[in-house]
Each structure stands twice: as structure tokens, then as C-alpha cells.
UniProtKB/TrEMBL annotation:
Extent of the signal sequence: 1-24
Species this chain originates from: Streptomyces nanshensis
Protein name: Tyrosinase
Family per record: Belongs to the melC1 family.
Single Gene Ontology MF annotation: copper ion binding
Bias kind Basic and acidic residues: ranges: 61-76
Amino acid sequence: MSRITRRHALGAAAATALTGLALAGLARTAGATSDPRATGHQHPEGHAGHDGPQPFSETFQGRRIEGAPSHADGHHGGYAVRIDGEELHVMRNADSTWVSVINHYETFTTPRAVARAAVIELQGARLVPLA
């Protein structure tokens, strides 16, 4: 009769934890977000393949959101997002997801989704420019 050792038990627990983390990462990469109104999941809207996201301009929940490629400060591949004319600082992650200063712990598939999520999070408050 074999006895389970502490090393075997810890190894099995670690393997289980790693499997859970991998599955959670796959679910998040598949486009999971807390508000389905904010994102497109399977085929992200505004996506233009390898060239980056397309410009957008729309009214979302009574707020004017706009986004377009930006070459400010000489950064190639930048993207500018505005809510009611005020700049929302956004950043593209290495995995091609997007975050903003409003939702910096949540990733989104497109800059449009980031802008919509920021509008939802602001709950009618004015976006204040960063100093």
C-alpha cells in the first residue's frame, strides 16, 4: 500500500491550481467582461486586422465617444479616445486588449469597448483631464 507524501500532495495541488488559472485565462481572453453592452466578443467591432482599430464616433448613453489613430509625440500605433471632447487615456496591452485610466484593472477587445465601459463607469460624471 503506497502512502501519499507531502511532496505528492503539494504537487497535485499546484497542478490543479495551474490548470484552474489557465482555464480562467482562456475565459478572460475569450472576451469576458462585467458589462456585455461594452464589448463585442467574437468579432470585435472596429477591428481592422493588423492595421489596428478603425476610427469611431458615436453617442453612447447620451455621451459623445470618439476614437482614432494618433501619432502624437511621434508614437506610431497610438490611439486617441475622447469622451465629450475630453481625452480618455487608453493603452494597448501586449495581448492586443485595451485598458483605460477609468477601467485599468479590466481589459477590453477594442478602444470603442473601452470608451463605452468608461461611460458606464463614470455614471454621468464629467471626465476630468489628467494634469
